[in-house]
Amino acid sequence: MTILKSREAILALAILALLAVIASRFPAFVTPGNLARVLTDTSPLILLALGQMTVILTKCIDLSVAANLALCGMVAALMDGMGVPLAVILPAVIVMGAALGAVNGLLVWKLGIPSIVVTLGTMTIYRGTIFLLTNGAWINAHQLSDPFKALPRMVVLGLPIMAWIAVAAVALLGLAVARLPLGRALYAVGGNPHAAGYAGISVGRTQFAAFVLAGALAGLTGYLWIARYAVAYVDIARGFELDVVAACVIGGIAIAGGAGTVGGAVMGALFLGIIKNALPVVGISPFWQMAISGSAILIAIAVNTLGRRDPGRIILKQAEART
Amino acid sequence: EPMRIALVAKALGIGFFEAANKGAEEAAAELGDVEIIYTGPTDTTAEGQIEVLNSLIAQRVDAIAVSANDTDALVPTLKRAMERGITVISWDSGVAPEGREMHLNPSSAPLIGNTIIKLAADHLPDGGQVAVLSATSTSTNQNVWIEEMQKVMGDYPNIEVVATVYGDDLADKSYREAQGLMQSHPDLDAIIAPTSVGIVAAAQAVTDAGKVGEVNVTGLGLPSEMAGHVKSGASQSFAIWNPIDLGYSATMIAYHLAKDEATAEPGATISIGRMGEVTLDENGEAAMADPFTYDASNIDEFSSIF
Amino acid sequence: MQAEPTAPVLSLRGIVKTFPGVKALDGVRLDLFPGQVTALIGENGAGKSTIVKVLTGIYQPDEGQIMLDGRPVSFPGAQSAQKAGVTAIHQETVLFDELTVAENIFIGHAPRTRWGLIDRRAMRARAAEILRSIGASISPAARLRDLGIASRHLVAIARALSVDARVVIMDEPTAALSHKEIAELYELVETLKRQGKAILFISHKFDEIFRIADRWTVFRDGAFVGEGAMAGTSEAELVRLMVGRSVDQIYPKRPATIGAPVLTIAGYSHPTEFEDITFTLHAGEILGFYGLVGAGRSEVMQSLFGITRPSKGACRIEGQVRVLRTTAQAVDAGIVYVPEDRGAQGAVKGLPIFQNVTLPSLPRTSRAGFLRLAEEFKLAREYTQRLDLRAASLDQNIALLSGGNQQKVVIAKWLATKPRVIILDEPTKGIDIGSKAAVHDFMSELAGQGLAVIMVSSEIPEVLGMSDRVIVMREGRLAGEFTGAAMTPENLVRAAVGISQQEAA
Amino acid sequence: MTTTTAPRQIPNRLTSPAARALKSWESLLLVVAVAIFLMNAMASPYFLDPWNLSDASFNFTEEAMIAFAMAMLIVAGEIDLSVGAIIALASTAMGMAMSLGAGTPLIVLVGLGTGLLCGAFNGALVAGLGLPSIVVTIGTMSLFRGISYIVLGDAAFTGYPASFAWFGQGYVFWVITVELVIFTIAALVFGTLLHRTSFGRIVYAIGNNATAARFSGIRVDRIRFILFLLTGLMSGVAAVCLTSRLGSTRPSIATGFELEVVTIVVLGGVSILGGSGTILGVVLAAIVMGLVTFGLGLLNVPGIVMSIVVGALLIGVIAVPRLIFKLRT
Lengths: 323, 306, 505, 329
Ligand SMILES: Nc1ncnc2c1ncn2[C@@H]1O[C@H](COP(=O)(O)OP(=O)(O)OP(=O)(O)O)[C@@H](O)[C@H]1O
Ligand SMILES: Nc1ncnc2c1ncn2[C@@H]1O[C@H](COP(=O)(O)OP(=O)(O)OP(=O)(O)O)[C@@H](O)[C@H]1O
Ligand SMILES: [Mg+2]
Ligand SMILES: [Mg+2]
Fold this sequence. Notes:
- The complex is a heterotetramer of chains A (323), B (306), C (505) and D (329).
- Chain A has a single domain (2-322), classed as ABC transporter involved in vitamin B12 uptake, BtuC, CATH 1.10.3470.
- Chain A is 74% helix and 1% strand.
- Chain A contains 15 helices and 2 strands.
- Chain A has helices at residues 2-5, 7-25, 32-57, 65-81, 86-111, 115-134, 146-153, 161-179, 181-191, 193-198, 203-229, 240-250, 262-282, 289-307, 317-322, and strands at residues 155-156, 159-160.
- A two-stranded antiparallel sheet of chain A has the order 1-2.
- In chain A, a hairpin with a 2-residue loop joins strand 1 (155-156) and strand 2 (159-160).
- In chain A, helix 3 (32-57) packs across helix 9, helix 3 packs across helix 12 (240-250) and helix 4 (65-81) crosses helix 11.
- The radius of gyration of chain A is 20 Å and the shape is globular.
- Helix content of chain B is 40%, strand content 22%.
- In chain B, helix 7 links the parallel strand 8 (188-193) and strand 9 (216-219).
- In chain B, helix 1 (15-31) crosses helix 9 and helix 2 (46-58) runs parallel beside helix 3 (75-83).
- The two termini of chain B are 32 Å apart.
- By secondary structure, chain C is α/β, with parallel strands linked by helices.
- Chain C has a domain at 247-334 and 434-505: Rossmann fold, CATH 3.40.50.
- Chain C has 19 helices and 20 strands.
- In chain C, the strands form 4 sheets. A 6-stranded mixed β-sheet of chain C has the order 6-7-8-3-9-10, with helices on both faces. In chain C, strands 16-17-18-13-19-20 form a 6-stranded mixed β-sheet, with helices on both faces. Chain C has a 4-stranded antiparallel β-sheet with strand order 2-1-4-5, with helices on one face.
- In chain C, helix 16 (433-448) links the parallel strand 17 and strand 18 (452-456).
- The longest helix of chain C is centred in the middle third of the chain and has 16 residues, at 179-194.
- Chain C is globular, with a radius of gyration of 24 Å.
- Chain C starts with 9 loop residues before the first strand and ends with a helix.
- Chains in contact: A-B, A-C, A-D, B-D, C-D.
- Chain C binds chain D through residues 305, 307, 326-328, 330-331, 336-337, 339, 344-351, 354-355, 359-360, 362-363, 366, 369-371, 377, 381, 384-386, 388-396, 413, 417, and chain D through 7-15, 196-202, 204-205, 207-209, 211-219, 275-276.
- The structure holds adenosine-5'-triphosphate (2 copies) and magnesium ion (2 copies).
- Chain A: It holds the Pfam family BPD_transp_2.
- Chain A: The chain crosses the membrane at residues 47-71, 83-107, 113-133, 154-178, 208-230, 242-275, 287-307.
- Chain A: The complex is composed of two ATP-binding proteins (LsrA), two transmembrane proteins (LsrC and LsrD) and a solute-binding protein (LsrB).
- Chain A: Keywords: Cell inner membrane, Cell membrane, Membrane, Transmembrane, Transmembrane helix, Transport.
- Chain A: It is found in: Cell membrane.
């Protein structure tokens, strides 16, 4: 009963129902191999949704993640072109993503500019920087080294590394959110910023940390994205930030901050990922995809928000007994 | 004062258009008194292209040669350009006739339509299933080629086109669409991608799915971008016209029209320098040359050029 | 009782703290002694909460010294004050809905495992221990959002005690507690005293201060006015120090002629909040609503004002049936409501005073929907002056006013609509004694002019001092109605607590 | 000297409105606008040409029309990210009307009506069900444009009647375009609505404290609903102009519009958190954006580099004053 009340459980059921519907029309979709493919395909969304979740928990929003991803990915590709080994590229893009996130975080923390304004600005700046770096030129598969392209595709225990990275990030972040003081601070800062100050938690510093984490994940995803699709150009992942926010919203992360779970964010991302992957397979015209994911978002918000409605104070004894 | 010719790309940064720009510069050098303004939006939208066109009109350039993101949406703006005395032609991807003086096709549309299906059919002696991975659903030229392809399907009775999907000229979307094609059509034999972005993504998807040899990727692509995939066998062959020649020819035509050395009317013949000459048909369109097919035998020769 | 203690644990000297435009503290001093309760008294805005925040490292003083055991210290952050053994129950809620009770208690200083992770088992065990010590039967694993307001307050107290403290600060800790819990809090204070802790106790309730404090310190307008032992002082003396003059009448109730029924409520019910509320209100009457905190009075009043929708019941105003589903309908019907939560529901912070006043009267001050500023200033001036508002200008942001003055603006806003019924929900909660008298005086005057007044209050002296008639509520139901000689503290409390419970006790 | 017993007189104001205006965000924007204008005039010989300036106005008029309504919505503490999608859907509806043989007046009505309907849908979800507007409109952004894709797929509507071209390509007087006139009228109407009427006052009250506004007898949800309607309507107007200017409809029309509109509003000094901002600021911000993009366009600077400038401007104009304040104290 209480299990059924949890948002994550509802979402898990929704995902299963979705898979069942798809399987009824196209059984091959639910074979392990294909599900692994869907998971791999959804990995970037999962990684970014995790970062976005921490940011949204602190009452902020990061619209610059996709641009951050694209910039870091391009830098990774350029480094590869200069012959830098992957072992250096990988930490470098993570640090760079974190630094770009830190820029957002600092503007929010030190100057108190609303995050939506900051990241709206940095979104265009980061993406524009790619153009300045490359003059708009594409970097194509043949210009990328083989080890660079191979890492995310390498299959270990039946899953490509790309998917394993997402799985690892989910596990680590799940642990961090539940058990690290900073993880709990995310909820405190988003739930009651005023009170967080009284508990000795700096609101700004926590928001900063969330932006840095989101940035680092975006940087890592940048490399994975470029390596996986084997092409880098200015417009990589344009508009992806809205998918990421949508995944969080579907996953029950409260946009007002302070409420939401890692599991929710992951399932929100999987839900969107399955829809995206299933439409072409099931034979629904791709032109329907946008409307379908829009409707899914709307239904999810309605379920989440209405389900979270304040039940009132329940003063009457008999009413209390009933609930 | 040199003549200023604006070469407007669908979007900046795409290898194909960068190569066309090389050709335009070559033509400018040959002509002597020409300055090329190579520009375009940063994403493939009509709105972005209109803003670029507006600033070109404001600079009173002498000629605009545009590869359009949208056949119709650019027309009002280009009409205004012509009203202000600017020579307007389209190339590669065309504008509706009222929005330009003439249109330079890289090749003739029927020829391209036939080529892309033939490329697939040549490697399917026993017939089979093919699918089309196009650019955006609004790309004029792709739509025309696919239409032309459909017209000649009767010549290939064993070949069945099972689906047409759109990758929007985005690498990731094209990749996913190609994956989807292989999923939903397990017996697929070939993917035809008449777009340089889509063909690379499809080849990558085929490689990643471990279906090299099983699914042949073909269509229109750039040798430099496709070299690896031809060698790996993901693509047996593909075709393209030379974008350098295309930029060169468009510049030449724009120059002659702007100088009033030629008029854009049906039947008119315009010289395009080293490429010879083109003749306008009743729609004011002309075709530059035949598409050229690349395969393992000649890919290395061209992959360093464009 | 105790001998004059030898040395203070904590003492403050010459503390100055300025905010843009306000000097909240102007060179104040304060001494806290081990094993003693020091009461800090002052009007609203005297700077009491500000000194608490200085002491707990939330604010940094501009000038002055903090001395711990005679040695100067500084608290650059909340953690450093905690480490030095200073802990506080703050005036505002400092809790987090999405965290568990244990996490709420230990956030910021949770026990850690070897790996740097939060040691959840240790945290729960210690939380359970602290909760038990204050007699709270709350599960440490419960989510805070599932708790009621009183339990939340107990969690806040447990949070303060989770720090191994030498100095415990309580900023109006009893404001949200019921009788029973207040008694338990007093016991806790005694225990802490016995453990030799120094306690700073801030309250506006004099009975409370006289009951538990050993010493007093008075602030006025951010300045130190005096200090001394409780034993040698009187309420009148403290009041005089606080407001700088003597307040002779806190309950200036004037007799009024009670007229015809204005508002008749029959059988108002709500699925979860209240049931079968029936009463009649007359012109010129002040009807008191008494009950323990959480009895549901605010809920009933808000349903009269169109905020909560009753599921059953009828409302008549001057004999006519009215449906009140929105606040706009209530205002149209002549019912207005001065909410309990001034900050969130009363004042529109960010708008100037005059715009706050004219907000519900815009149809009157504007013409064909277009604003007429001159009319607005006129209306705002008329009503704010009648309430003796203290403000620099009518164009000033209401957020810059003290709580009492904000309350006056909210009342002015409603009087400007010329209502028939005015509902005042805890009109003097958290308001200092001087302003309290002013609000009471005004209430009395309104009733005298024939307005029907409902006053919700949790303070017995206020209810008895101001009301013509008192209705008591308990757990969402009417629990008795008293007039004349029956209006005694015993009767009210008995009805509010429930007779059976009283007998059982 | 008054007698001591008279009640203390509280002055209306301590600073005059003029003195306030001088220190306001709007005067800062005006300075920025003039500076950019002068810089443009110096940088390009083509800038000071009435026809060019008139053409340049298309760079911002459509966005700005929506920005006025969006400004009111943001002042009230809400946001609508679906405006670009509303344009797409309204344009698609107009195309359908046109293909069914409707004349220009009916086509325009269909466009405005679709805008209103979309606004009503957003409004019902936000004001009626109480869902957060930012996520609702992220959802409807996909839904509305998604419907356009379902209807149009890879096709396009073309062949609008010649008289329809007037809205996006016509001139009212000399170089003054129809769009510029609509922009000016919209600025005046929304300026009056927000700053001179009780409706506008209530919008500010809701933006500052919606609960207290409700407790002041204001029908908060109704106002919110109306604001979404207005935003939908103005998106419909923009859809008419843009469709007319492009002479065709594709489902991808006006992609990314929402962010440009929000950028104009925020640059105009409207607090994204609600409660403050002016229409004059939005007008100036639109002009600044128009000047920046046109000026850089004349120098053939690619659009993406312009967007860096706009992004930097957005952060910079807010950050620099705060930074100076921080460094001073
Ligand atoms: N963060 C702040 N910014 C500006 N002014 C402030 C701030 N905090 C407090 N003040 C002002 O400082 C003064 C002292 O406030 P404080 O909260 O200390 O009063 P108080 O004595 O606790 O009153 P109350 O009895 O109402 O709780 C008031 O004038 C208040 O408006
Ligand atoms: N559990 C709770 N969760 C959220 N808000 C609460 C809770 N309990 C009380 N409140 C709010 O706190 C304020 C104080 O409530 P209060 O204790 O006065 O209850 P009440 O029902 O108004 O009873 P009364 O007025 O009879 O004391 C009210 O505005 C109420 O809505
Ligand atoms: Mg206080
Ligand atoms: Mg109450």
